[in-house]
From TrEMBL:
This is Class I SAM-dependent methyltransferase. Keywords: Methyltransferase, Transferase. Gene3D superfamilies: Vaccinia Virus protein VP39 (3.40.50.150). It comes from Streptomyces cyaneofuscatus. The lineage of its organism: Bacteria, Bacillati, Actinomycetota, Actinomycetes, Kitasatosporales. Pfam families: Methyltransf_25. One of its GO terms (molecular function) is methyltransferase activity. Residues 205-228 are annotated as: Disordered. Residues 59-150 form the Methyltransferase domain.
């Protein structure tokens, strides 16, 4: 599964940065979900809705990285057929090694190589954070296209008004931009793409525990409307 045409500059730098940190990121993030009950609750609601309204179709974790959330969804006991999509070959290599029973494919959310209405759910868990503002409408239109009527989409992201730029992470040189956004603005863009917003949640910054946060967190749940 590949994007059509050459990747944009931000895709190249994002891919190369995550390629550089893939093994270290997998080790760093191991156990993160276990320390975050609210996030597990958000994912559980999404998974239940996908199981109930997705028509038995596959569920895509778009921007899956090392596959830890893909695996979490698969292990919830709801019978979801979950697979991951990511730009970074090295992150995917880690995902395939750590979760050999799951499917992981290389691809871009800017040009999902999936048939129309082929997904029973779509998760973009801290992956749209690397997409510039001007590309979000295109991304959300693509989400609408690949979701079956009634199928949910769940986003997770950092809340804010200014991007965070990183040139070093986990001991490696990187070039990453984290676009922080207000949940209401993300919801408005999803509506503009024809998606029906079901929940908008803002979590204040968690400064304690093993995974302290630099910013508040946002979660928006939407779905492709049922056809009349």
């Amino acid at each position: 599964m590949t994007a059509s045409g050459p990747p944009a500059d931000f895709q190249r730098t994002t891919r190369d940065s995550y390629d550089a940190i893939a093994p270290a990121y997998a080790e760093f993030s191991r156990g993160e979900l276990a320390a975050k009950p609210l996030e597990r609750g958000v994912l559980a609601v999404f998974a239940e809705l996908a199981a109930a309204g997705g028509g038995g179709l596959p569920v895509a974790d778009v921007g899956c990285g090392t596959g830890r959330v893909t695996a979490h969804l698969s292990e919830l006991g709801l019978g979801l057929d979950v697979f991951g999509i990511d730009l970074s070959p090295q992150m995917l290599a880690v995902a395939r090694q750590d979760h050999p029973g799951l499917r992981f494919e290389e691809g871009s959310m800017l040009a999902l190589g999936l048939p129309d209405a082929s997904l029973g759910g779509l998760l973009a868990w801290y992956s749209t954070i690397h997409v510039p503002d001007e590309e979000l409408p295109r991304v959300f239109a693509g989400f609408h296209r690949v979701l079956a009527p009634g199928a949910p989409v769940q986003l997770g992201f950092q809340v804010g008004d200014e991007p965070l730029r990183m040139t070093e992470a986990l001991g490696e040189e990187v070039s990453l931009v984290f676009h922080r956004r207000q949940p209401e603005r993300v919801a408005a863009l999803l509506r503009a793409a024809g998606l029906e917003v079901r929940a908008v949640v803002r979590k204040e910054r968690d400064t304690e525990g093993p995974f302290p946060e630099r910013a508040p967190q946002g979660f928006v749940l939407a779905r492709r409307p049922q056809e009349a």
